Amino acid sequence: MRILLTGASGLVGAAFARAAARRGHAVTGIVGGFTGELPGLLSRRTVDLCDEAALTAVVLEVLPDAIVNCAAVSEPAVVEHDPARSQALNVALAATLARLARKLNARLVHISSEQAFDGARTAPYAIGDATSPINLYGRQKIASEQAAHAMAPDFSATVRAPLLMGNSPGGKRSTHERIFADWAAGKTAQLFSDEFRQPCTAENLAEVLLELCARRGLCGVLHWAGADLISRHALGLALREHFKLSPQRAPITAITRAEKPEAARTRQAHLALDLAPLVNVLNTRPQTLAEQLAELHVPLSCQEWYSSGK
Ligand SMILES: NC(=O)c1ccc[n+]([C@@H]2O[C@H](COP(=O)([O-])OP(=O)(O)OC[C@H]3O[C@@H](n4cnc5c(N)ncnc54)[C@H](OP(=O)(O)O)[C@@H]3O)[C@@H](O)[C@H]2O)c1
Fold this sequence. Notes:
Elements: E1 2-6, H1 11-22, E2 26-31, E3 43-46, H2 52-62, E4 66-69, H3 76-81, H4 83-104, E5 107-113, H5 136-151, E6 156-161, E7 164-165, H6 175-184, E8 189-192, E9 196-197, E10 200-201, H7 202-214, E11 220-223, E12 230-231, H8 232-242, E13 252-255, H9 261-264, H10 278-281, H11 289-295, H12 303-308
Parallel strand pairs: 1-2, 1-4, 2-3, 4-5, 5-6, 6-11, 7-10, 8-13
Antiparallel strand pairs: 9-12
Helix pairs in contact: 1-7, 4-5
């Protein structure tokens, strides 16, 4: 398959490029500012994705069988800080790609977020449940789902993804990389003991996206996540144990939502996803936490600290 990949330098995009190359697909990756190595790409373009004309020119040059959209402003705090740029990347880009996919009869695979929901209930959210975002990022992700569906109902699949672990090109993007960065900087990781998530790795999500490129009958909004629900605090403890770090070298403090009411206003307490129907029709399986930990690397920027034993 000829695949056009946006966000090729991001956590999920880079994992997707590696997964697609292992199966012999020809991937053209679009990056923004990243200049480092990206294994798995057949070719690479530096394009500002807010520039619709430049993006359209690349898509028409590649004439892809599938477009995989991994570009976004993916941090809720950054979205709040720069809503206009975030709207362009999180919403308008999805609409443009859906329009181009329809024009070219290409598949569009797009990513949304578990943050479509408010996390006020403990039962898993199903794909048909009413959305209830509590921050701008969540609202933009829902708008992007709607844009993809409106422009390309028979071509597009949008996967709502959970909190992501995994190994990013810069080593600073995923949950475990951020916790490691705190430890390497001599800081205590402050982790909520009453916020529950169902993480998976970017590598596992990439396998799902790749399957969806070929499964053109699966359209609309779909859910994917890991097999285990866990608090952020328990996740930190599991990470520390997996990498055999002592509490002195890798300190963790449990915090609660009641202690941080301002932050809790825009953070969901409990996000669990019902994975039907995807889990019943894909070959990729939801990962247990143990399977995820086994895939994680010590981020490059923390390796000196890690191996120093100090
Ligand atoms: N990370 C999570 O925990 C998580 C959870 C659920 C859903 N998601 C969703 O999963 C998708 C992928 O997220 P991610 O975590 O992989 O994102 P990420 O690591 O933050 O990567 C974002 C990508 O977008 C590119 N980009 C941003 N602005 C650009 C611009 N103006 N022009 C060109 N490229 C631009 C970046 O390129 P450069 O770096 O080269 O500039 C980078 O490749 C997003 O839709 C996100 O909302 C993420």
